[in-house]
């Protein structure tokens, strides 16, 4: 009896530490603990009733009790069944508490990233008439600067020039909060090699022609993210995903596809100078056979910066 209780205690602790940290698996652990506890409580009631009925038959009709009832006394059976049920309920309660605590701690972490990234108003670098006007021009207060001194094409050609960026453009922006111009995605937390990214994007990957995402990135000069396949994605044994990035004119922003697989994410850093739109395409395949294979791929912390 005590050995069984000890095994139940150790088993509950192992299940808690292995499965309670992930929300999707924690739900199954909670359901399993509740089911086990319910079954054991019912078993305890049935054993108590059976033990009482067996005692009555033994006294009134001299019928010996069953082997199950003779294995242990009623008190021992109740300690065993209700003890294991208690461990199951405790495991489920601790799992629920851990999930609730994780959910309560996640929103502040995500909320602190956006408000603190409000931009400082950039200093205009182009309209400086006093630097291009000669001393004789400044002597006459009615004289104005030559328009050619403040409106050179070279000063306005770069769309990421600080003078051309709207003052309300944030210095940093996460793409998981931005609507896609083309394609669709799920804004969820992703995990690569047990490293969790609270701000993430997950999307379906078929072929380069069919699987695409596009965003407006005007005013931003760089894009960084961690690309990969989430650890929890099913049917990804031997699967490799190749990801390509383009600007609005179809110019490829990486020399070759960024290839990722489960357990092998890649850091991505793109120069968006001159880009108004950013398009990502992807295709999946079996590494050994090069046969097309549909799967999901993800971006962890996809960030635009000026």
Automatic annotation (TrEMBL):
Region Disordered, residue ranges: 108-176
Transmembrane stretches, start-end: 30-49, 77-97
SUPFAM superfamilies recorded: Galactose-binding domain-like
Keyword Transmembrane helix set for record: yes
InterPro entries: Galactose-bd-like_sf, NPCBM_sf
Keywords: Membrane, Transmembrane, Transmembrane helix
Biased composition regions of type Low complexity, renumbered to the chain: 108-120, 128-172
The keyword Oxidoreductase is annotated on this UniProt entry: no
Annotated protein name in UniProt: NPCBM/NEW2 domain-containing protein
Organism lineage string: Bacteria, Bacillati, Actinomycetota, Actinomycetes, Micromonosporales
């Amino acid at each position: 009896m005590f050995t069984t209780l000890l095994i139940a205690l150790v088993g509950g602790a192992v299940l808690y530490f292995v499965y309670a940290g992930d929300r999707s698996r924690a739900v199954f652990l909670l359901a399993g603990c509740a089911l086990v506890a319910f079954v054991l409580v019912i078993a305890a009631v049935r054993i108590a009733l059976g033990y009482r009925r067996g005692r009555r038959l033994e006294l009134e009709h001299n019928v010996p009790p069953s082997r199950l009832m003779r294995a242990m006394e009623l008190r021992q059976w109740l300690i065993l069944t209700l003890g294991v049920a208690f461990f199951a309920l405790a495991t489920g309660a601790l799992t629920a508490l851990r999930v609730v605590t994780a959910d309560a701690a996640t929103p502040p972490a995500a909320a602190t990233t956006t408000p603190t990234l409000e931009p400082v108003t950039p200093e205009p670098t182009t309209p400086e008439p006093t630097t291009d006007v000669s001393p004789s021009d400044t002597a006459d207060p009615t004289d104005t600067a030559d328009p050619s001194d403040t409106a050179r094409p070279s000063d306005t050609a770069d769309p990421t020039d600080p003078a051309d960026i709207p003052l309300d453009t944030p210095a940093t922006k996460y793409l998981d909060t931005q609507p896609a111009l083309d394609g669709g995605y799920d804004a969820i937390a992703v995990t690569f090699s047990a490293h969790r990214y609270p701000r993430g994007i997950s999307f379906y990957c078929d072929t380069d022609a069919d699987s695409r995402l596009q965003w407006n990135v005007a005013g931003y000069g760089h894009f960084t993210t961690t690309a990969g396949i989430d650890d929890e994605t099913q049917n990804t044994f031997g699967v490799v995903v190749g990801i390509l990035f383009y600007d609005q004119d179809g110019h490829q922003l990486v020399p070759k596809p960024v290839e990722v697989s489960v357990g092998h994410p890649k850091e991505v850093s793109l120069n968006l100078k001159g880009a108004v739109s950013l398009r990502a395409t992807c295709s999946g395949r079996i590494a050994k056979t090069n046969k097309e294979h549909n799967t999901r791929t993800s971006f962890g912390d996809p960030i635009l910066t000026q």
